[in-house]
Specification:
Elements: H1 6-11, H2 14-29, E1 36-40, H3 42-50, E2 58-62, H4 74-83, E3 86-88, E4 112-114, H5 115-131, E5 139-144, H6 153-161, E6 167-172, H7 185-202
Parallel strand pairs: 1-2, 2-5, 5-6
Antiparallel strand pairs: 3-4
Length: about 200
């Protein structure tokens, strides 16, 4: 349901998102012996959760939430979704929070969020919190201190809960939420590459 149309996201649920990760994992396993899960935002939550279910060598979670910013009860979200399908994502300008003025122009982002998907994300994050102590593979967490969409304290909470003996945090500055696309992307790419190289060399 991502990067197509909001209607597609409205129809999908968190189990579909988990299934997409599993499908991609099995495709990769056909061509490589070792798989790392790397995810941004909700994708980071999926990467952490699915690392407890799949045979992966490590996981990288970028700009990842551990809870919703406004943590409304699930019953209220479900009730609201019956009467209204979408809410505007923000009243801010589309490039708000971006530090590279050109990077956001071709970034695929919906102008509105399906309310049902907010409930699905809440359910996914509930599963994530239960699974974090079971994350035993090497873990790299990356977050921008300038992220106003998923606040930076999410990373410290995730780091405290992850069960791996090899868990690392990298703070980024000069970028917003979408750090692999924003101004500090080269630093992010290098950090992920170095992490994978280090884990592989130890293995």
């Amino acid at each position: 349901g991502h990067a197509t149309r909001p209607d597609d996201m409205h129809r999908s649920n968190y189990e579909d998102w988990m299934g997409s990760v599993e499908d991609a994992y099995h495709l990769l396993k056909g061509s490589t012996a070792h798989v790392y899960l790397v995810g941004l935002s909700m994708g980071g939550a999926l990467a952490l959760l699915m690392s407890t279910r799949l045979d992966v060598r490590g996981v990288v979670a970028i700009s990842t939430p551990i809870a919703l910013l406004k943590d409304y009860p699930l019953w209220l979200i479900r009730l609201l979704a019956v009467f209204r399908h979408y809410l505007p994502k923000s009243n801010d300008a589309p490039d708000t929070g971006w530090h590279d003025p050109n990077a956001w122009k071709d970034h695929v982002s919906y102008p509105q969020n399906p309310i049902r998907s907010v409930g699905q994300l809440k359910e996914l994050l509930t599963r994530l919190r239960s699974a974090l102590p079971l994350v035993k593979v090497p873990t790299l967490l990356i977050h921008s201190r300038d992220d106003t969409y998923v606040l930076p304290e999410n990373m410290t909470r995730i780091h405290a809960a992850v069960g791996s003996a090899d868990k690392r945090m990298l703070w980024i500055t000069g970028s917003g939420h979408v750090v692999p696309r924003d101004a500090a992307r080269a630093q992010v790419f290098a950090a992920v590459y170095d992490f994978i190289q280090q884990v592989d060399s130890k293995a």
